[in-house]
Design brief:
The protein is α/β, with parallel strands linked by helices. The chain contains nine helices and nine strands. Strands 3-2-1-4-7-6-8 form a seven-stranded mixed sheet, sandwiched between helices. The protein has a two-stranded antiparallel sheet with strand order 5-9. Strand 1, helix 1 and strand 2 form a beta-alpha-beta unit.
Amino acid sequence: MKISVIIPVLHEQQQINTLISHLWSMNSAIEIIVVDGDSGGSTIAVITDPAVICLTATQGRGNQLATGCQSATGEIILMLHADTLLPADAFDSIQTSIAQGADWGAFRLGIDAPSLSYRIIEHTVDLRCKLFTLPYGDQAIFVTNTALQKVGGVPTIPLMEDVELARQLRKAGYTFTLVPDQVSTSARRWQKDGVVLRTLRNWWLLLRYLRGSSPEKLEKLYRLN
């Protein structure tokens, strides 16, 4: 089955070509779609590979991912953050998971930093996925295009699109798998805000969303902090 990799970006000029080269080196048969949230296309302007599909969309991962899905031709959609690298056998793992009956899934979180605090975060995320079937976007969520379309596509909301998508897929009864291998995602968000503050802020935003706060309101709060 063909895999379409959709990468929502915003000011990722420094690393986008490295990520694209990394993906091609893993599998030359995939489709790569980069969706820029900057109306000026500052990130896609530096992409040198003509095989990459470059798009722009209203800023916000939900809008950008939904735009990418409209152009995707793969039977499987993989949503990848620009600061996340996949494990070596990622595409084989995705294909195997789908062949064995999964409709959607994600990889275990791996944070590219040595501190013990990051290992604690990783284990907490493992637990969250196992108990609540709730992966986040930095875990490289993948889903069959059929299942995605049946639940209405990626939610076009400015924040928590990954949480809402997981809730819709779970509610529809689609089978989830957590791939044992870890992605390697940048620690820059935790390093910028501090591990404790960033973690508490993420939990606070999630709790407010699950209690009914609008994504638009939460997105404004997120930008203020």
